[in-house]
Amino acid sequence: MQIGTLFGISVGPGDPELITLKGLRLLQRVPIVAFPAGIQGKPGVAQCIVMPWLREEQQQLPLMFPYVQDEELLTQAWRVAAEEVWHYLQQGQDVAFACEGDVSFYSTFTYLAQTLQELHPECVVQAVPGVCSPMAAVAALGVPLTVRSQRLVVLPALYAVAELETALDWADVVVLMKVSSVYEQVWEVLQKHQLLETAFVVERATLPNQVIYSNLRDRPHLKLPYFSLLIVQVTQTLVLNFS
Amino acid sequence: MQIGTLFGISVGPGDPELITLKGLRLLQRVPIVAFPAGIQGKPGVAQCIVMPWLREEQQQLPLMFPYVQDEELLTQAWRVAAEEVWHYLQQGQDVAFACEGDVSFYSTFTYLAQTLQELHPECVVQAVPGVCSPMAAVAALGVPLTVRSQRLVVLPALYAVAELETALDWADVVVLMKVSSVYEQVWEVLQKHQLLETAFVVERATLPNQVIYSNLRDRPHLKLPYFSLLIVQVTQTLVLNFS
Q: For chain B, which ranges sit under pLDDT 70?
């Protein structure tokens, strides 16, 4: 019997309509749909995105990925998740893993796929690209992310203020993912560089409760949700006025 | 009468199935579908992507954007294109502009929208995000673009080798868009930094004639098409084995 394929499906930033046709076709074709389990009883973002698209007979498989830094706990969680997926693959059933944003861009899917291939090298994995959150955020803002010869830097989290300083000295556009925990430090750096007025924060891009702050000058203490990102236009760029 | 809306529709990297549901819905709803005109009689990439989705009664509007550096010629071309679009908008008709990749990421759409808003400040523009080419390229390669705390740099073109050196010294992952014209120089820099074996080139990601070079060691003189991108994993990352 042929083993099943694990599809990593990028389901986009939040709006269920921002999945691709290919992602939706594969999502609806497989018997098993996996996604990161929610926390504290709340469904996860990827789960919410795929819910409207699932058929009743499809089996849902929430996988636990703890929000911890401990390498050993994480590795253990990925192994458990990989074996849960393997259980179906080895029976010849395809599994789709629904992944918020794009599956290749700071995604949990990478660890799941890697662990699965370490434990079961024969397994077959296929990634379907999608809409990543920076693209969704700028579309909502009504500005381009990059134009012409602009250099783009993406920092997934801030471990040292010096790193942001280096990026601001060099790049034309800087994106800070998951900025919530370091927002006040970032605000001070931006103030020092006189960049508060060309910095934007987008919370939960494309979701019904999306919030946009399009000028940070008077906002040194924003309380932001986990999925917030900050975009800084370091050099003068086009500021359009989309809706 | 209400004026029409200009929708900037990201149609993805090449595979027509990589348009989003939202992009397709809006694309099929409008009476006028614009796209960059092809060159030398060949249809453009965005045009090829949307063709299978258009209805016969939709009017197609190819817009000329010359491949030149001359600012005056470009500005003139954008003005002509903007007025062609405005002709329909002012009659209350919505226009969709189909844009390869993502509409906010080094896109012609930015100039069209900006020029239109300069000439006709009352016009309404809406951007629909999509799949950008780096995400499509790594999905095809079977590697993640970024994981964990990796710093990403995107360089749209190379104007100075020193810039690439700076990026390689600082970032974990570097993407060079439109690498064809500078490939040999880039190869030499990568050789000096001993990064040829973790550098990849993807030509025409997700199109039927996609080509992947997953190790550049023996390839100092690749002849690449315009839409080729190069990805360098500067620090050790996961190399998966997707199909």
A: 158-159, 237-243
Q: What is the pLDDT of residue B1?
A: 79
CA-based nearest distance A211→chain B, Å: 17
Enumerate domains of chain B plus CATH numbers.
5-128 (3.40.1010.10), 133-233 (3.30.950.10)
Q: How many helices and strands in chain B, by DSSP H and E?
A: 7, 10
CA angle B233, B239, B243 (to 5 degrees): 120
Instruction: Write the ipTM.
Output: 0.95
Selecting from B113, B151, B156 the residue whose C-beta is nearest the C-beta of A146 gives: B156
Q: Give CA separation, A100 vs A106, B62, B160, in Å.
A: 10, 35, 36
pLDDT in tens, B115-124: 999 999 999 9
- HSE (side-chain half, CA atoms, 13 Å) at B20: 35
pLDDT at residue A69, rounded to an integer: 80
Q: Band of the pLDDT at A243, cuts 50, 70, 90? A: very low
Task: Decide if pLDDT at A232 tops 90.
Answer: yes
Q: Kindly state whether A20 is in contact with chain B, defined as any CB-CB distance less than 8 angstroms.
A: yes
User: Where does residue B242 rank: exposed (0-12), middle (13-18), buried (19+ CB within 10 A)?
Assistant: buried
pLDDT more than 90, % of chain A = 86
Type of residue numbered A95:
V
In A147-186, the residues whose Cβ lies within 8 Å of chain B are 147-157, 159, 163, 166-167, 170-171
CB-CB under 8 Å, A147 with B163? no
CA dist., res. A142 & res. A228, Å (int): 17
User: CA-to-CA distance for B57 and B47, rounded, in angstroms?
Assistant: 16
Strands B32-36 and A199-203: what pairing? unpaired
